[in-house]
Amino acid sequence: MTNPYVSELVNRFSVHQNREEADRMSQYMRRQFLYFGLRAPQMREITKLFLKDKGYPRLENLSDCIFQLYALPERELQIAALYLMDYKIKEQPDITDIETIEYLITNKSWWDTVDHIAQNHAGVYFKKFPEMIRVYSEKWLQSDNIWLKRTAILFQLKYKEETDEELLFSILSRSIGTKEFFINKAIGWALREYSKVNKEAVIAFIYKYDEQLANLSKREGLKWLKSRELI
């Protein structure tokens, strides 16, 4: 039975449905998902007003609302589920949240959800429960699921000076040597962000693994430094 909170949010989105925009958005995402046709700023505004009116679900209903929203076909509702998970992880964290995080990563997976989950769910979760980092980063790296691997690469993206450099470079060194675009892009992104903290370490890593690193990873990894003429 659909939670009334979920039903109300679905109604708020559906009122603003734009079929032409929905078709364009679906085409951009390779026809993998259906859309209401709400652009990100509009969706955020609708969600903001909804939360102002209704607040967040009670703790005992929060996880159920997340799963119900994520099960619905429109991508905007799946993104809304991630917004509720943002709140869950920050305000009402539980060590078992990692199970929900894994579910969200491995279901209806694409870069738009996975990149949000990696930074805002896995990244925040591991700061609250650091004892879980080694277990799950290892598990994800050994998985055949590229989205779990991408999350392992990206979860420290916002850590800046708090980045575990040894762990980061260990994960990256074990992830190179693939032709998978989403992994090579993630490696470059992780290197680029960390270059803002320790450019020497990133340059040294790229030099050390020059032959194994994809050109995409090297190009992305050095982009920020080159744009500021730091190398």
Automatic annotation (TrEMBL):
SUPFAM superfamilies per UniProt: ARM repeat
Top-level taxon of the source organism: Bacteria
In terms of InterPro entries, this protein maps to:
ARM-type_fold (IPR016024), DNA_alkylation (IPR014825)
User: Which Pfam families does the protein's record reference?
Assistant: DNA_alkylation
* Listed name of the protein: DNA alkylation repair protein
Record the organism. Answer: Bacillus salitolerans
Q: What is the lineage of its organism?
A: Bacteria, Bacillati, Bacillota, Bacilli, Bacillales
